Amino acid sequence: KYNTFNNGTYHEQVPENSKLRMRGVRFSVQNQTYLQAKSTETKPYDLQLIAVQINYDISKHFYVTGQAAFTYEGEAGGYADGMVGMGYYAPKIVNNKIECTLEFLAGAAGGAHIDTGAGLAIKPKVGINYCINDTFYLISSFGKIIEPYGNLNSTNLNFGFSYNFSKLQIN
Questions:
Q1: Over the stretch 96-105, which tens digit does the pLDDT of each residue have?
Q2: Which of 154, 62, 65, 57 is nearest to 114 (CA)?
Q3: Cross-strand pairs, 54
Q4: For residue 81, which of 99, 103, 106, 157 sits 20 to 30 Å off, Cα-Cα?
């Protein structure tokens, strides 16, 4: 158990000269829409996916991220993608309530006759988040999912919420 005092944090097993640092973690659940996703068997159609994403802050504005998304609607029930990447949180504006983001993810994607070629996918996104409080955010973003070795090149729209917490790191 850690005890927090006005002048710092104390634990009997942590040397007094240790550096303590809080690392932010953001867990989000999103609905993602891929507009006119190309299929290898039919005409293009829209996909609806549920995505779970975890961001781990490496500085005040930069983070590493991992995401898994699975379709639940759109004639492609077996499609899924898993990606990792980097992101940037811009300083908050408008009474510290609005936060803009940039993200670049890369990973594997495939299934359900979506034209993913070899399965490599990249997903650049820009977003705007609304800070309800320090813990909860409403999140939105748009971007592209691009398959360099396939024909999938769809615009994606993302909406959801996030839960933010911190992890204590001792150096």
A1: 999 999 999 9
A2: 154
A3: 27, 66
A4: 99
